[in-house]
Amino acid sequence: MSSNKIILILGMMLVTYIPRLVPFLFISDRELPKRLKGFLKSVPYVALGALIIPGVFSATPIMPIAAIIGIAFAFIYSWLRGGIMVPVFGSIIITVLMLWTR
Amino acid sequence: MQNGVKNNGDFILGVKASIPLVIGYLPIALAFGILSKTTGISIIDSFLFSALVFAGASQFMALNLILIGAGFGEIILTTLLVNFRHFLMSASLAVKIEGNMKRWIPFIAFGVTDESFSVLSFREGKLTKEFTLGLQLSAYLSWVLGTVIGYLAGGILPEIIIDGMGIALYAMFTAILVPELKKSSKVLFLALLSGGVNTLLNYLNLLPKGWNMIVSIILVSFLGSYIYEEKEVKLCEQQ
To answer: Could A28 and B102 be called an inter-chain contact, meaning their C-beta atoms sit closer than 8 Å?
Structure first.
C-alpha cells in the first residue's frame, strides 16, 4: 500500500510544479502588452491582500482575538518603523502570551 | 573574484530574508509530519510529500483525502486547483527576474510559494539568482526538515507555541505590504478590495477549494491593470 503512494506524490508534484514553471518559460524576455504588464504588476499587492484576509481572522481558531491583536501589532509597528523581523517575532510573542492567558 | 564575493553576499542576504519563512514554515511542517504519521503513511512518503510537492495546503488536503479514502485522481485534481494560484505568481515573477537566470529557472520555479513570491516581488532593486535561490533553498530545507522532525519527534514544541507561531506568515505578509500601502492609496485600495472579495467568496462557498483566492487575484488585478496604466510610462522611462 505504501509503495503506490509514490504515484500519488509524483502526480501531485507534476500538477503543482507545472503551473509554477510554465509562466517562466513563456513570459521571460518578452515584450508584453501594456495591459497584461499592469495586470502582472498588480498581482503581488492583490495576492497579499487575499493571503492575509480573511485567513488571519482564523489563524488561532481557539481564540481568534489573539491573532488579531498579534497582527495589529505587526501592522502598527511596520507602519511606524518598517522592517520584517520585529513585526514577525513581536506578533508571535503577543499571540503566544494572549493564548497563555486564556 | 570580486563578483563571486558579491554573489555570495547576495546568497547570504537571501538566506537572511528567509528567516520569517523558516519561522513560519517550521510549525506547519512539524504539524504535517505529525499528522502524516497519524494518517498511517510511512516516513519516506511523508518526506517525499514535502520534498517533491512542497506546497503546504495541498499536502494537508491530501492527508485528509487519503483518510476518507478518496481516489488518487481526485486528490491530484484537487491539488491542481489548490496550487494553481502559483501560476499567477510565477507569471508576475517572470517579469521581474533577469534573463541571465534562465539556467536556474527549473529550480526557481519549483521554489515559488506564497511566501517566497511575496518576499521576491517586493525586493528592492535587482533580483539576483543568488538572492532568490538563497531564500528558496533555506525555506525549502526548513519545510522538509520540519516534516521529518515532526514525524520522528512528534510534539517537541508546546502546542501553545505552535499555535502562536501560526501568526508568523500573516505578520510577514503584513510587514511586506504595509510600506507599500504607505506609498500609495491605490495599493491600499487593491489589497483591501482583494481581501474583501476573497472574504465574500469564502463566505459564499460556491467555488472549488483554492479558487476563491485565484478568482480574487484575477478580478482585482484586472482592475489594477487599469490603475497601473498611467504609472507604466514612468516606470519604463526609469529603466
So the answer is: yes
Which residues on chain A are in Cβ contact (under 8 Å) with B222? 39
On chain A, the residues whose CB falls within 8 A of the CB of B114 are 47, 51
Which of B79, B160, B170 is nearest residue A99 as measured by Cβ atoms? B160
| Cα dist from B238 to A44, B6, B183, B231, B234, whole Å | 21, 25, 18, 11, 6
Helix pair A5-27, B56-67: axis angle to 10 deg: 150
Q: Considering only CB atoms, which chain B residues are within 8 Å of A27?
A: 91, 94-95
Chain A 33-92, residues with CB within 8 Å of chain B CB atoms = 34-56, 59-60, 62, 66-67, 70-71, 74-75, 77-79, 82-85, 87-92
Taking only the tens of pLDDT, chain B with its 239 residues reads 445 556 789 999 999 999 999 999 998 999 899 989 988 999 999 999 999 999 998 999 999 999 888 899 999 999 999 999 999 999 999 988 877 788 899 999 999 999 999 999 999 877 899 999 999 999 999 999 999 999 998 877 788 888 888 899 999 999 999 999 999 999 999 999 999 999 999 999 999 878 899 999 999 999 999 886 655 444 444 44
Is the sign of the CA dihedral B104, B110, B111, B115 positive or negative? Answer: positive
Contact B174 A59 (CB under 8 A): no
| ipTM of the complex in this document | 0.92
> Which residue do the cell numbers 501592522 mark?
A75
Instruction: Give dist(CA B103, CA B51) in Å, integer.
Output: 21
Q: What is the pTM of this model?
A: 0.88
Residues of B in contact with A29 (CB under 8 A): 99
Q: Do residue A46 and residue B217 have CB atoms under 8 angstroms apart?
A: yes
